[in-house]
Amino acid sequence: MRTSIRYALSISLALNLFTGCSKLPIPEKAVTIDPTLTAPSLNGSLSDITATAFEWKAMEDPRVSGFYVYRSSQSAEDKKLERIATIESRFATHFVDDHLVPNTQYQYRFASKGKENTESNASETISVSTLPMIVPVSFFQSVGNMPRSAKLLWRPHPNAKINGYIIDRLNVNDQKWSEIATITGRLNAEFIDHDLKDGQIYYYRVRAVTYDKLVTEPSETSKVVTKPLPPEIKNITSTSNLPKAIALTWEPTPINDLDHYNIYRSKTSDGKYSYHVKLNDTKYTDITKEDGEIYFYKLTAVDKDDLESLQSTPIVQGSSLIKPKTPVSFDGKTGPNGTDLSWVNADPRTVSYTVIKTTKRSWVDRESIEINSITDTKFHDGDIQPNIEYMYEVLSVDKDGIRSLPAAGINLHYETK
User: What are the Cα distances from residue 315, in Å, to 236, 251, 312, 336, 368?
Assistant: First the structure.
């Protein structure tokens, strides 16, 4: 018999199929005890974590219109019973008192409700205790050093009443916990938090949730440190002495999972640095189109998780080899025996000279030739004709074949009598 009562109460508690009652505390009015009214006869009670269910025998007394429920306060020092509910039907045989405190003892009495504010003698006092709250998740850990994310793992809660979990994350600025995710299903035991900051510390905890929305105390706190960005590239060098090229070298990054380096380039130090090249070596030769062409560089390291370091500082400037200096004091004279030119070297890089001879037969008829590999600072041109104007220019050439700008041209001719 006791088993069937508990089964019926369990169903009643789960479905909460109790109607016609108000469970808010009701201000007590002066009542008159009618000892002739039949008092409720309790069959028993069944307690859960935050609720207790009661069952009594069906009321046969037609003078009864309902029932009053009395309960002690939650204070252990205050045993006074106060009316907490009125049930407005004598045909009711069940009552559930919910929103109770877990693991707490309460005392109850029931009375039958009569007409004109009368009630029966109270039933026997019954003492009940709510069940303890479900224990927190017992095992909770995290996986750190992940790119902009954190992986959380826990042991599924063994209590079958658990329906899911709440993931909390601590805001380190104000030291407040906030709910970041809810997970449905007791057996689910993993969560990955995304869009985190690089190289930052995060704290997490998990709380279990029952089917009826009760939340356990939080688990132990787990600390996560996300994967940091690769360090900045250091000790970058650049050249300015290569013909139509700039060579860059730098110190290898100390990370173990390097994927590649990126080079960004700009024509000005404070301009926009555009992506230039991706490479796996710690050296690079940038080919230029012009002599003395200047570029500014910033480098980054990228790991296998596609995390890219901050762009290197300070900015590195490089340039291709500038042109040699133009010869100075360029002069010449001409006569029947030819033209004699002379100049002064202005650059120690010079290994030879080139003379450009332009023959001007008319305004439109011009012909230029180059005379190369001149190693002296003077030149005699015996191939001239009278009454024809010639223009001469000279430029210096270094060992790499880079030519200077030509010296200002001089025009020479002689006339026959």
Answer: 9, 15, 7, 60, 45
- Which residue in the block uniquely carries the two structure tokens 């939080």? 218
Burial of 348 (0-12, 13-18, 19+ CB in 10 A): exposed
Angle (nearest 5°) at CA 410 between 409 and 414: 150
- Produce one character per residue of 301-321: b if its CB has 16 or more CB atoms within 10 Å, e if not: bbbeeebbbeebeeebebbbb
CA distance 114 to 37: 7
pLDDT in tens, 117-147: 899 999 999 999 999 999 999 999 999 999 9
Burial class (CB in 10 A: 0-12, 13-18, 19+), 152: buried
pLDDT in tens, 275-294: 999 999 999 999 999 999 99
80 contacts 57 by C-beta, under 8 angstroms: no
Q: Domains plus CATH for the chain?
A: 2-129 (2.60.40.10), 140-225 (2.60.40.10), 237-319 (2.60.40.10), 328-412 (2.60.40.10)
Q: Are strands 316-319 and 52-56 parallel, antiparallel or unpaired?
A: unpaired
* CA–CA distance, 247 with 238 (Å, rounded to integer): 6
